[in-house]
Amino acid sequence: MVIIPYETHHTHVLYVNIFWMEKKFIVSDLKPGQTLFDEPFALSELEKKSSQQGKIYYNIGLSDKTGEIHGKIWSEALVNCDLNTKIGEIVKVTGSIQEYNGKTQIVVDKMSVTTEISPAEFLPVTTRDRSQMKEDLKNEIDKIKNQDYQKLLLAFWHDANYLDRYSNFPAAEYVHHAYVGGLLEHVWEMYQLSRAYKSIYPNLDWDLFFTGLFFHDIGKLEELDIVGAAIIRTNAGRLIAHIGQGILFIDRLISKTNSDFDSVSKDKLFHLILSHQGELEFGSPVRPQMVESLILSMVDANSASINQATKHIEKSIVSGEDFTEYHKWLGRSFYQKDYLPDATKDQ
């Protein structure tokens, strides 16, 4: 059996096996009336329920890198399904695609875990060039004049494990940049957005700002993980969350690489990490109290919101409607007609 590495994620390694089975259907192309036989998906939801008549059934969610479909395992099919399957595992599914209340759903007749297909088929990946994004950030690191900040950045950059995780991790479980390479893309977008501030406000402490930008979500490396074909929140992530994890991470990195790190510079950097979500109700324990931290919170919100909007449109555009469905996080629908293919616009 021949295998070649695909990407590494934290302590896990994904592989592309040239002899593995191929998918016949992708979620984004599923239509009512189709029948699936042993079709592989990643399990994203499995919830036990009870009908009014007392019959047991399960709500199920199945996904691949093109999207997610929800459906049911009715009571008569339970005997043919492995109900001990864990979220993120890849399963072979036999069932039918139906329409219910105007939405496409799947009714599962049989389900079992499989190891015959690469997890890479089920993980969405950034569409941006990760090599170019890393090159852009490294070029900026090389320009940092503050020796404490540059030494910290380079210590991180030259650690192969840290850089691998930074390049491959998502920025979130669900909300924004929730895909392989999402963290790197999010930081790169913030860097691009903030370059205008650098030229407009020459008194901005760019060395401090860029270091805070680069490390603002570093706690995500401890808060999240990729297991099988699922982005999960770790126990430490649930207990401490990414802002707390970020402070702990940077404190350890400073102790490891530079015991003479200036205490005031350290306090300022910690402030940027602690305040980057902008408001107490958004999860930051302190509000931005420096120009640098204020700008950081703004470009963080800009990148996150625009990513959510554009990804929402990309998923919704196949509907052919003028507006997307309501986006619960952004609290609105988006006009998408201008994003439709030219042939559709003329209809």
In short:
The chain is an alpha+beta fold. It has helices spanning 130-141, 147-157, 160-168, 182-200, 206-215, 220-223, 235-257, 263-275, 291-316, 342-345, and strands spanning 3-9, 12-17, 35-50, 56-64, 67-73, 90-100, 103-113, 224-227, 230-233. The protein folds into 2 domains: 21-117, Nucleic acid-binding proteins (OB fold (Dihydrolipoamide Acetyltransferase, E2P)), CATH 2.40.50; 122-308.
Number of helices: 10
Shape: elongated
Describe the biggest sheet?
A: 5 strands, mixed, barrel
As residue ranges, the low-confidence spans are 1-19, 342-347
State the secondary-structure class. Answer: alpha+beta
Which percent range describes the beta-strand content? 15-25%
Please describe what this structure looks like.
This protein is an alpha+beta fold. The protein folds into 2 domains: 21-117, OB fold (Dihydrolipoamide Acetyltransferase, E2P) (Beta Barrel); 122-308. The protein contains 10 helices and 9 strands. It has helices at residues 130-141, 147-157, 160-168, 182-200, 206-215, 220-223, 235-257, 263-275, 291-316, 342-345; strands at residues 3-9, 12-17, 35-50, 56-64, 67-73, 90-100, 103-113, 224-227, 230-233. The strands form 3 sheets. The chain has a 5-stranded mixed beta barrel. Strand 6 and strand 7 (103-113) form a beta hairpin. Helix 1 packs across helix 4 (182-200), helix 4 packs across helix 9 (291-316) and helix 5 (206-215) crosses helix 8. It is elongated. The model is unreliable at 1-19 and 342-347 (pLDDT under 50).
